[in-house]
Amino acid sequence: MALVVVAAGGWFAYRTVLGADCSGRVPLNVAAAPEIAPVIEAAAAEWVEDGAAVDGTCVAVTVSGTDSVDVAAAVAGLHGISLAGVGRASGTAVMPDVWVPDSSTWLLRLSAAAPGFAPTNNAPVAHSPVVVAMPEPVATSFGWPDKQLTWADLLQQITTGTQLRTGIVEPTRDSAGLSLLLAVGAAASAAGEGAQQATTAALRALATGRSALRQDLVARFPRSADPASVASALGAAALSEEDVIAYNAARPPITLAALYPQPASMALDYPYAILPGTDPARAAAAEGLFSVLDTAAFRDRLGARGLRGPDGTWGQGFEAPRGAQAGLPSPPSAAPGTSASPDPGGSALPGAPARGPDPAAVERALSTWTAVTLPARMLAVIDVSGSMLQRVPTAGGATRMQVTLQAAQRGLGLFDDSWAVGLWTFSTELSGGRDYREEQPVGPLSSQRSRLLSSLNAITPKPDGDTGLYDTVLAAYESMQEGWEPGRVNSVVMLTDGRNDDDNGISQEKLLSDLQALVDPRRPIQVVIIGIGDGVSRDELDAITKVTGGGVFVTEDPAKIGDIFLQAIALRPAAPG
Predict the structure, then answer these.
(1) Average pLDDT value over all residues in the chain
(2) Which residue stretches belong to region Disordered (predicted)?
(3) What is the pLDDT of residues 152-177, one digit of tens each?
(4) For residues 339 and 357, what is the distance between their CA atoms, to the nearest angstrom?
């Protein structure tokens, strides 16, 4: 816990010279987003020069400029969880005492996946709206600066226009990209019955212009005022206001306009998180440093770096882009993907502002994005045992089979033609002496989407059928291994409402032994198992995925299978190679 993650963005450090009024040394390690790290470092240096101490012990502060995704990966690894798109931390990455990511969404995603992750304080220390950055000639064609752009306007351009080249940084790894995802999703949801189609179209359009790194995205803006260069370059991207200010400060050939679509999207809020496990002396030092960041002098330092204070107003030296308004968006309506008040279920972080991102909306947006944009080869295996005929009170009396098939059909609608999908059903003795039956072989959706939909519509449970789970898992794994394809995520996704109760099938010991012999790290196949209702055995399912890789998702309320299905798809790791 004494070291700090050192990653992209450089590093800044300040160590105290012991003064006469304190003795000893309390080290405080701070990891902050690269754009705010120099501001915190300068404030910390002045604080230490003025005699920073905790109970008479001198404080030494080290500040590292660290990309938020890198600290998130380290935290996830420490807690044994994974976040969609984040990946693993480097072998040298360990925890700081204080983390100042660019957005509270990092804290919410981690705390939702790891209940033991409970940082304290969490109050914002800066603010930067997320804007749509456009080269000024492009922005002018949209009526800027006189016309106020809405997210509905932008959604229409993204999905039906041909002139606007849009870009996004991978939203599972970038907070501005996530903000755009939430805003576009909220605009698409207004399409009523066509909401899923509008969302899917928007995400697919954005995915064609995505970048893994922010600097790569920014490099695609026009580097010449030549009209042909402008037309062929990036025309719009989600960036922070600070990004636009920094870009224009370099005096590029064409400056960027910052457009603030309405309703306001989720901004970057730079929460001050004291991480769990920080010892009391360091935690006290962290609170001392926080008090220094809540001053007019710190606000002026932020302003000079293109950042606002946490209330949305700015200090001296801030060069506001045209159209910028001071302050935070006003109630009554919350910004897309946010909640106007703390979550009643207690998911809001202590110390966080009342208006903040809705954890459920964040999870849903990222899950949908991953399902839509990640090419894959998947075998869906659906339980058709007799228990799938049970009624689900929370789904209007529909059967478990009906809500499962509805979720599968919606999921199929999200996948584009680059996917390869197959369909099996299973119970006991479903096809002669076998517990499983191939309804459709794994094949490209470009040629068999309609056949898959027809097969789904024709599925009916076997009233007297039990759950031949073990035989089916082994057969599905072997089948996917035979057709394994590089460059894709190869996975088996099973949906079941019971535990193995096939007296004539293989034992659990035999299943695990055979799977262990089949697993090839060079040709990974992820097994994702979705448990529905209260009849599943989590331990039984976990034992399988511990061997194969993948994950288990269980919901006691079958009506929630749609969201669980998306989460399961989103947590697949990236394809090797």
Answers:
(1) 86
(2) 308-360
(3) 888 888 877 667 889 899 999 999 99
(4) 6
Contacts of residue 175, defined as CB under 8 A and 6 or more positions apart, other chains included, come to 68, 101, 102, 103, 105, 106, 130, 268
Cβ neighbors of 282 (< 8 A, separation 6 or more) are: 26, 27, 28, 97
The pLDDT value given to residue 306: 96
Please report, for residues 312, 362, 560, 573, the alpha-carbon distance to residue 407 in angstroms, rounded to integers and kept in the order given. Answer: 41, 19, 9, 22
Structural tokens at position 258: 């910052």
Contact 544, 508 (CB under 8 A): no
Residue 250: half-sphere exposure toward Cβ, Cα within 13 Å? 12
> Which residue shows structure tokens 């010991």?
509
Cis status, amide bond into 486, omega within 30 of 0: no
Buried b / exposed e along 433-462 (16+ C-beta atoms within 10 A): eebbebbbebbebeebbeebeebbeebebb
Distance, CA of 536 to CA of 544 (rounded, Å):
13
pLDDT (average), residues 434-441: 96
Span 41-88, pLDDT tens digits: 999 999 999 999 988 999 999 999 999 999 999 999 888 888 878 877
What pLDDT is attached to residue 481?
Answer: 95
Q: What is the residue type of 238?
A: A
Give the tokens for residue 145.
């600066």
HSE-CB of 433 using CA atoms within 13 angstroms: 3
Question: In 3D, which of 324, 289, 321 has the Cα closest to residue 123?
Answer: 289
- Which residues touch 369 (CB under 8 Å, ≥6 apart)? 171, 172, 181, 203, 570
Which amino acid, 522? R
How far apart CA 451 and CA 423 sit, in angstroms, is: 10
CA distance 131 to 238: 6
How far apart CA 487 and CA 534 sit, in angstroms, is 37
